[in-house]
Amino acid sequence: MLPVGDPSSTLCPAVIVTDLVKQFGRFAALRGVTAEFAPGRLYAILGDNGAGKTTLLRALAGLTPPTRGIISMLGTTDLRSVCGQVGYMAHPSLLYDEMSGMENLGYFARLYDVSNKDQRCAEVIGAVKLDPSLTRPVGQYSQGMRQRMSLARALLNDPKILLLDEPFSNVDLRSAREMVSLLTGLRDAGKTIFVVTHQASLLEGAADEFVWMESGQIVSRSSDLAARLETP
Amino acid sequence: MSTVPSLTRATLAKDLRLEWRSKDAINSMLFFSLLVVVIFSFSFDPTAEESRRIVGGLVWVAFLFAAVVALNQTWAREIRNQVLDAYRVSPAPANALFLAKVLGNFIFVTVLQALMTPLFIVFYNLRALGPAYQLPIVAALGTWALVVNGTFFAAMSLRTRSREIMLPLLLFPISIPALLAMVEATGAILTGEFSAKFWIVLLAAYDVVFTIASLFLFGFVLQAE
Asked: Scanning every residue of chain A, which has its alpha carbon at the shortest distance from the alpha carbon of B78?
């Protein structure tokens, strides 16, 4: 049986992937992933290292063109045409170390043609519980602060779809819980969120669905984290 | 909607700010060019007339090697923290990034030339016997030729394992016609023995062709894995 989204959902899926294959030389990182993801839901993508989680996220972001298969986002297969409505946070910070948080976000706001950019930058920096008036360069931030600033960058364009790769790594527990609370708020505001993480327990009670990947395939989907964890 | 010129300006301003704070490219270029001037001036002791004949080649080879240092730095700061991916996922056009990088490198190499030219004049006892007003034209066209190709091939070699070696391997052969035109035009102006016009026109044509080709192809290079 193909792993598909919530059948009770009558909404048009935000993301549809069909027979997605990604080969790196002889190694297949994704092996025929087919799935639908409904809008306004928070998906936790789980799996061991090398399961294909990051490759799937990069393919959705348009950074890794698939070897085979189709990705449809927000009703189109032309991912470039909807990239302004997608926010992407990678494992590295995607920020310039020599510039302050506001300077970094100010530059990226120009790329997304964000109106009232100073106000918007301050708003998202505040949303991740950092101080917009902090003038020191991002390179001098702690790892946790950098992660939060990276999340702020992903939120800058008020995206409909948010792709987050390991947002809680190197973040202390309190900050991670604050990030989860921010994400649930965004989900409740109608955004579709994908979170690749190894810290699944943080998303228990927050994620609508846990998507398990193994060897480049989606092997299970469940709204209950414990259900899968109990399976040998 | 942000246009290519406004995004080019924003990216150029960002690059100048980064360079102002780190001074990575300009320091390496200056140090390298200074070494070339000093070592060559000790290696041979030419008369003023001989200097006029050889210095065109010397100057441009020094600037070409120094430019490679800047070109590697330009993209190196984009792959640190994978910031280039943030640009790739944004709706900003690839051309704005390319133009900003070319203009940034053009400014860096021009600053280097402005600082190094007095040293070349002093060390090699130079005085133009031909139309000296053509020298800035040759410098501008020659520098543009170096940085357009250099920026493009530096981006191409970005994801290769030994990009510092790959860039000169790609850049130098394709720059030979431009380098020849720069050297001949500079020599012609300094010696006053023949007109530099043919070489200036050749250089301008080279710039137009390679700028258009690079702008056309850069989108593919940026989105390639």
From this structure: A96
End-to-end CA distance of chain B: 28
3-state secondary structure of B77: helix
Instruction: Measure the CA–CA gap between A53 and A65, rounded to whole angstroms.
Output: 15
* B89:A86 CB<8 A: yes
Residue A210 contacts residue A225 (beta carbons within 8 Å)? yes
CB A74 within 8 Å of CB A85: yes
Q: Is the pLDDT of residue A212 over 50?
A: yes
Question: Is A1's pLDDT higher than 80?
Answer: no
Residue of B nearest to A94 (CA): B83
B155 burial via Cβ count (<10 Å: 0-12, 13-18, 19+): buried
Q: Which residue of A has its CA nearest to B82?
A: A94
Average pLDDT over residues B114-118: 89
Among B125, B127, B133, residue whose Cα is nearest residue B196: B133
pLDDT in tens, A35-84: 999 999 999 999 999 999 999 999 999 999 999 999 999 999 999 999 99
A-contacting residues in B 82-121 (Cβ below 8 Å): 82-83, 85-92
- Answer positive or negative: Cα dihedral of A82, A84, A88, A92: positive
Best residue in B17, B20, B89, B222 for a mutation probing chain A (most A CBs within 10 Å): B89
Burial B39-64 (b: 16+ CB within 10 A, else e): ebbeeeeeeeeebbebbbbbbbebbb
Total Cβ atoms within 10 A of residue B110:
16
Mean pLDDT, residues B159-187 taken together = 87
- Please give the Cα distance from A35 to A168 (Å, whole number): 25
